[in-house]
Design a protein that fits this description.
- The protein is mainly alpha-helical and 124 residues long.
- It has a single domain (5-123), classed as Arc Repressor Mutant, CATH 1.10.1220.
- It is 62% helix and 5% strand.
- It has helices spanning 10-23, 28-41, 61-65, 69-82, 89-110, 116-123; strands at 5-7, 58-60.
- Strands 1-2 form a two-stranded antiparallel sheet.
C-alpha cells in the first residue's frame, strides 16, 4: 500500500484544534487514530465525497500509525473487503481519507460537553 502522506481538510483541522483544546491531547496522530477507529466501528460505508486537502495539517502514514501502522492497514483492508470494495491503492487511500474525516467529525461531535470522559466512553 502506498499511503505516504495524509493531508487533512480545513474543517478536520478546526475540529482537531477543538479536540486538542478540550482533551489536552497534543498530538494530531493520536486524535486521528481515535477518529479513524470510531469511523470503522460505524457499520455504514462513508459517503463518497470529495474531501479537500486545504489545510496545513499533514502527516506521514508512519506518524499516523506509529508502531501499529501495519495493524491499521490490516483493519482498513478488512473493512474494504467487508464493504465489497476493491483493495487497490486508490480505493484504500480514498476509504482511509473518508473514514478519517468522518471519524474526526464524529469524535468532535461526541465531545460537545467538553469532557475527556466522553472520549473514554467511546472506547468502552
Amino acid at each position: 500500500m502506498a499511503i505516504e502522506t495524509i493531508h487533512l481538510s480545513q474543517q478536520a483541522k478546526d475540529q482537531l484544534v477543538k479536540l486538542k483544546r478540550i482533551t489536552g491531547i497534543q498530538n494530531w496522530n493520536v486524535l486521528c487514530r481515535w477518529g479513524f477507529c470510531l469511523s470503522l466501528a460505524d457499520t455504514s460505508i462513508p459517503a463518497p465525497t470529495k474531501i479537500p486537502s486545504d489545510s496545513s495539517v499533514e502527516m506521514t502514514w508512519k506518524v499516523f500509525g506509529g508502531a501499529y501502522q501495519e495493524i491499521y492497514l490490516a483493519i482498513l483492508l478488512d473493512r474494504c473487503k467487508k464493504d465489497n470494495l476493491a483493495v487497490d491503492n486508490e480505493t484504500l487511500i480514498a476509504q482511509f481519507k473518508l473514514h478519517l474525516h468522518r471519524g474526526i467529525g464524529h469524535l468532535s461531535g461526541h465531545l460537545t460537553k467538553k469532557k475527556i470522559k466522553n472520549l473514554v466512553k467511546l472506547a468502552i
